[in-house]
Amino acid sequence: MNSVRYPVWLQAGVCAIALLCLISGLQAYRAGDAYGRAYQDPYMIGAQPARLGEAVRLLPANTVVGYLSDLSFTDTPGQAAYFGVAYALAPRLLTRSADDPQWVIGNFSHPMDFAAAGAAHHLAIVRDFGNGVVIFQRRP
Amino acid sequence: MISLMEFLSLAVAALLGWFGIRLWIPEAGGASRWAPLLQVALGIALGIGVTSCLYFLLLIAGAARLLIVLGVDLLALLAAGAAWWFRRKSTGAAHDSSPAFTWNWALAIAAAAMAAMFVTAFVNFSEFNPQGGWDAFAIWNLRAQFLLHRETWRYAVTALPTGTHMEYPLLLSSAIARGWLYGGAAATAVPIAIALLLSLSLAALVTSTLSIVRGAAAGLLAGLILLANQIVFSAAPDQYADLPLAFFGLCAIAILTLDRSPRYLALGGLFAAFAAWTKNEGMLLLIAVALALLATAWRTAGTRAAIRQTGFFLFGAVPVLCLVLCFKLFLAPPDPLVGGMGAGLLRKIGDPARWVHIVAGFGKGLPAVALLLLALAAGLLRPRPAAQRTPVLFLPLLAFAIILAGDFAVFLLTPDDVEWLLSTALDRLYLQLWPLLVFATFLLLRRPEDFAIASAPAPSRSKERSPKRSRNQVN
Chain B residues with CB inside 8 Å of A64's CB? Predict the structure, then answer.
């Protein structure tokens, strides 16, 4: 029976590539771990259900809800704030418009005149839950 | 922690798919000891794809209640299981005829260590960020929440201004919603488990397929290089759809690499259609694989055989492709990317600065370390001799080239800001292509086993020191 050998350069090369792969994998592991620890839920998506819980209970199930905020959709913080609310409200549908839906949720980053903000869209405050969360309803 | 019912949803899907693979292509992988791993990986793809489509169809039919979905799943599982039981044949003991590369044991340990690192990184990241990355909570999991309820599924395809991509296909969101329906709540464990399952299956698919067709050393090395890409580590726990898309696409290509009989071709078409039902880029993948199949079959067997093979491939794709087309035509809102491409078409094509900018952007975004490792492997093993390079082996590379050209065209014609697209989408496009590139490369390289030096057993030590210098190709 014949035995089989392999050139040393091949054996060394294959082992070296495998080792480099492991090093690269280890670096990816460490980078991912460091990033994950440093930026735990960076957009605070997981925090929204607790923050919005009471307000969500006030909204009818499965309805379309409008959105009103002082944060711009064009910026990442504004978009993140919007999607955090959208995820917490689902399966209610959150739209970016505050002009059409009967129910609108306000999500504000600063204290301001919420009533005036709502009035600009023909909305009346139903309840201010604090922490920048306000539920509006369309005026008849 | 995943609940029992959530786990059951995945186990039923995987088992159903496995039975499907064993029934449809029982000989897949032959007698190789890697065949079971291949069948498991393909089974997971088939199971997740089929149950996701079934769930969506039940949902739009208004019948997506737990009892009905569970009943349909279990009935299908029982039927497939019974059919497998009665038709099962002993395939004999697993064996690989070619002599193994000396360091296969070390490669296997390295691959196991890499897989362990990947899983640990995935679990750690998911613990810190169970909601996943941006697209997970803004697109896939958000839409899955709508698909969880019969009353709200249309919200997943609404044209109202929601800021998300309601025009994207729904395989992943449907699979997540199905898991949530089993579990009774929209828990983060389900999308996390699906992301992990599909990512590991992708690695298993690359490793097992290449181990079967090119030997264990090539398969293990390819699996190692696949996971040595940092973006694979980060994208998996982000729960993006790009890895599932890459997985379904590679299932199609792996199947076509294994065999070109009608059953394999049809199954390849089905997997490619699953890719199209996962993400819009999947449609490009389906077209690319069909064109690559047509071209390679034409070069190998002539026009009639090429048309016949492509016909079987498309025949397999038809059921899910119909779902995708119906979705696009009747349910989904218009795609802003497609709609905006026509504007200033000639100006964009005729703008050399735009071409240069995109080429530079494509170059800048390359995963350098992972590509370097792949290049090192290619340099070490070298391409197969010309006599061995049949057109069939070029299918993955051709599909890769077509997809890359298609992606480039999208960047060229996009109505969006190119700079923004390069910074946000390019790494994910490379992620979609990375498994395909690794697979295509190793298919065209020599195997470590090809460098074997055969020598007769030496009767004395002096002879042992002077083995024959001729290189015999093993297998």
Answer: 155, 160
